[in-house]
Design goal:
Length: 154
């Protein structure tokens, strides 16, 4: 893969990368750091990509690993103010749903974001997270139920 092709594919994936990172880290600065680290790591390990058609899935998997590493190393709580600043650009009618998604447990939230917000298929999510399709489907079901309960309360 040439540098130009790599750059083009990264640019095509930019929004997805930021959304996935934001769903996990909840802080714009941390998201930017994670995305940059993931892109650098992908470039350095480009020879491990077996099929160029799976570039986006491969890159998202790297990003998720980077985000998990950041969460492990920082172990900090994000204040509501930080979250609100990052969400200022979000439409007001989606804020309840976004806040409900942010309250989901991380494994469920990952699957919900990848499936509904980033529109990955169950098979693509399986490749990204390295978990069985049945686990993905059960997390989607659990996520939908938790969101339904959370949104009914509001």
């Amino acid at each position: 893969m040439t540098r130009e092709t790599f750059s083009d594919l990264v640019m095509e994936s930019e929004r997805t990368l930021f959304c996935v990172a934001m769903s996990m880290l909840k802080n714009e600065t941390d998201c930017e750091d994670a995305v940059q680290t993931a892109i650098l790591t992908a470039y350095e390990k480009l020879d491990s990509l077996k099929n160029e058609a799976f570039f986006k899935t491969w890159l998202v998997r790297i990003l998720i690993n980077v985000c998990k590493q950041q969460l492990r190393s920082r172990r900090r709580v994000v204040s509501f103010e930080e979250y609100s600043q990052a969400e200022e650009a979000a439409p007001a009618d989606n804020i309840d749903v976004r806040m409900a998604v942010e309250q989901l447990p991380l494994p469920v939230r990952e699957v919900i974001v990848l499936y509904y917000m980033e529109e990955f298929t169950v098979k693509e999510i399986r490749s990204i997270l390295h978990i069985p399709e049945g686990t993905i489907k059960s997390r989607l079901s659990k996520g939908r139920e938790l969101l339904r309960l959370s949104l009914q309360e509001n």
